[in-house]
Amino acid sequence: MKLIALESSTRHLSVALWRDGVVSERAADVPNGGSDRLLPWLSELLAEAGVVFSDLDGIAFGAGPGGFTGLRLSCGLAQGLAVGLDLPVLAVSSLEALALLAGVEKVCACLDARMNEVYYAAYLVRGDVLETVLAPVCAAPALLAAPAGSGWLGCGDGFAAYPELLASALSGALCGVRADLRPTAAAVARLAAPRLAAGAGVDAALAMPFYVRNKVALTTAERLARGGAK
Q1: Domain-located, residue 217
Q2: Of 133, 161, 178, at which residue does a domain stop?
Q3: Are 122 and 152 in contact (CB under 8 A)?
Q4: Does 10 share its domain with 74?
Q5: Model pTM above 0.90
Q6: Count of CB atoms within 10 A of residue 138's CB?
Q7: Are 190 and 23 in contact (CB under 8 A)?
Q8: Are 13 and 89 members of one domain?
Q9: Do 62 and 120 have their domain in common?
Q10: Are residues 45 and 128 in the same domain?
C-alpha cells in the first residue's frame, strides 16, 4: 500500500510517503505560513521513490488539535488531492502522532494552544496501536487531570510553554519530559496505514480537522482574567 501524509498542526511542517512500511519524509520548522512547501515536498518524495500520484491508495493528514490555519492547510490539501485522485482520506489525531514518537508505553501528549491553554491527552502506546486513557481536551495547564499511576512521559511543546504549571498539575504521574517532540507526517502515516487498510478512510468531503477548542480568540477581559495575552 502507498499513501501520503501531511502534518501542519504546529510550526513543524512535514509530509511523508508510506510505501509498504517504508517511510520517507520532508520537514522543517516554519514559524509563519508554509502553504508553498507541502505540495513541492510531496512531489519530491514521490519522484525520488519512482511513484506518481495515481499510484497512491490513500491520503492522511494530522487533524489536530493545533493551530487553526495549519489544520486547514493540511485538511484542504488532503481534500483537494483526494478529490482529484478519487482517494479515501483519513484524519489522524496530532496528539496521537505526538504520542507515537515518544517510544514508550505511557505518554501524556501536550501541545501549546496559546491563550494560556494547552491541548492535552494521555495514551497507552503498544507498537503502532494507541489506547486513549484521557481524551483530548483544551484547558488551562493547572486544570488538567493526571492519568492514574506513575511512569508517564510528558511530550510536546506544552511542557516548554508552561513547565511549572504542568509539573504541578501532573505531579506524581510524570517520570520525565520530552518537550522537543512535535507531531510529524511520518507518525501520521504509521497510524494511518493500518486504518486505511481496514477501510477506515472516508470521502474527501467528510474529512474534517479536530479543533477541540471552540473559540479561537479571547476578549480583552478574558485575556486579563487568565493573566494576560500569550
Answers
A1: no
A2: 178
A3: yes
A4: yes
A5: yes
A6: 17
A7: yes
A8: yes
A9: no
A10: no
* Grid cell for residue 128: 503502532
Instruction: Please indicate, yes or no, whether residues 11 and 89 belong to a single structural domain of this protein.
Output: yes
> Which of 161, 208, 226, 168 lies closest to 65, judged by CA?
208
- Domain, as residue range, for 126: 95-178
Q: Please give the chain's pLDDT, 230 residues, in tens.
A: 999 999 999 999 999 999 999 999 999 999 888 899 999 999 999 999 999 999 999 999 999 999 999 999 999 999 999 999 999 999 999 999 999 999 999 999 999 999 999 999 999 999 999 999 999 999 999 999 999 999 999 999 999 999 999 999 999 999 999 999 999 999 999 999 999 999 999 999 999 999 998 654 443 444 445 454 44
Q: Give the CATH number, domain containing residue 172.
A: 3.30.420.40
Whether the Cβ atoms of residue 6 and residue 77 lie closer than 8 Å to each other: yes
**Helix (H) or strand (E) segment spanning residue 183:** none
Which of 143, 141, 144, 147 lies closest to 160, judged by CA? 141
* Nearest alpha carbon to residue 187 among 118, 142, 125: 125
Which parts of the chain are beta strand (E)? 2-7, 12-19, 22-29, 58-64, 89-93, 106-114, 117-126, 129-139, 152-155, 174-178
Contact indicator for 216, 192 with CB cutoff of 8 Å: no
How far, in Å, CA of 171 to CA of 12, rounded?
28
